[in-house]
Every structure is written in structure tokens, then in C-alpha cells.
Design goal:
Layout (H helix, E strand, L loop, with lengths): L1 H21 L2 E6 L2 E6 L8 E3 L10 E2 L6 E3 L2 H4 L5 E3 L16 E2 L5
Antiparallel strand pairs: 1-2, 1-3, 4-7, 5-6
Length: 107
């Protein structure tokens, strides 16, 4: 009985280490410092730091960008990547087509 418990405990620990090692990770800016965290740990107020090819880790607004294009075909049907840029939009724009918003899971 004790041996079963020990083996099951070790298997659980190994599974957790494996889960952590394959978790999709991204860089965020927290308290002014860049950190690499699992995407599941993103929180309100985190600033995502993205590079070419990264998945957008959360819905958000573009604060700073240079030549930033995202593929949002699943949302809007637009077949080509769309350029996103920082800035305020006047009035009540359609958030899906707004030029300063990005959505989780896009590339």
C-alpha cells in the first residue's frame, strides 16, 4: 500500500513537471521588468511583449508597434494579415476591425 502511494505520488510529480515544460509561454512586462510566464498566467495589467510569429496571448490594445500584422481570418474572414498600430479611435468603432486591438490566439 505504501509503495503504491509513493509510486503514484512520483508519477503525479513527473506529470506536473512535464505539463510545466510543454506549457506555451510568453513574455510580459510586470512592474517594469520582462518575465517569461505560461500564457495561462496572464493577468489584467500585464503588457504582452510580442515578436514575429508569436501568438497573441490575450485580448488587448496595441500600445507600441512597428510593422505589426496579425492574421484575424477566423474572426473577420479577412484572408490577408491586417496591420495593427497604437492609437485611439474616435467614436464607437467595431472592435473586430479596430486598428488598435488584437485578440487572443491570433498570429
Amino acid at each position: 500500500m505504501t509503495l503504491d502511494f509513493v509510486q503514484e505520488y512520483r508519477a503525479g510529480q513527473a506529470a506536473e513537471r512535464l505539463r510545466q515544460s510543454v506549457a506555451v509561454r510568453g513574455q510580459v512586462l510586470r512592474e517594469g521588468k520582462p518575465l517569461e510566464i505560461p500564457l495561462a498566467d496572464n493577468g489584467a495589467g500585464d503588457v504582452a511583449l510580442l515578436a514575429a510569429g508569436d501568438l497573441v496571448p490575450c485580448d488587448g490594445r496595441v500600445l507600441e508597434a512597428k510593422d505589426f500584422f496579425v492574421n484575424q481570418a477566423l474572426l473577420t474572414g479577412e484572408p490577408f494579415p491586417v496591420e495593427k498600430a497604437p492609437g485611439e479611435l474616435p467614436g464607437e468603432p467595431d472592435v473586430l476591425t479596430a486598428g488598435n486591438t488584437v485578440f487572443w490566439g491570433h498570429q
